[in-house]
Please model this.
Amino acid sequence: MIDGIPVPDPFSAHTLCARLARQRGRPLRLLALPTPTVPGTPSGILLATESEDFILYDAQTSPLHQEHIIVHEIGHLVCNHRSATDDREHFRHLDISDPRSLRQVLPRIRYGDEQEQEAEMIATLILEAAGRVPAPTLLSGMLGGLEAAMGLRTPRARDPEAPC
Model:
């Protein structure tokens, strides 16, 4: 499935969305949420209407986190995930010409179900393939940092051209 996703080089979530829209023959629009998200609210939402798709994301967070949110929602899109409940009432405030045209709404809030885990895996694999996050190593996180600090391993060189 990952091989079929047109990941741009250099990577840009906006360019990826434009490529997916062309590939799918269906508009895919990115919309920044107007206010920062708070715990318990979605940081990203995939909203599909009869004629186009929208990814809403928290624009008040770091650029890398924004990318991850967007690519997570792309994971839902390419996996053709469906919402389990009718969430249309929660999105009346959005400027959608006909709210009845909503086909699915997938808010990014629950990580326990299979669809969320699958979308998260797709996001991680895309971002790893794009070089935006390091691939996992045997020792990562705090232990990997200690290993590098003690000179037992050379820390990964950061690409000076990378935006983050």
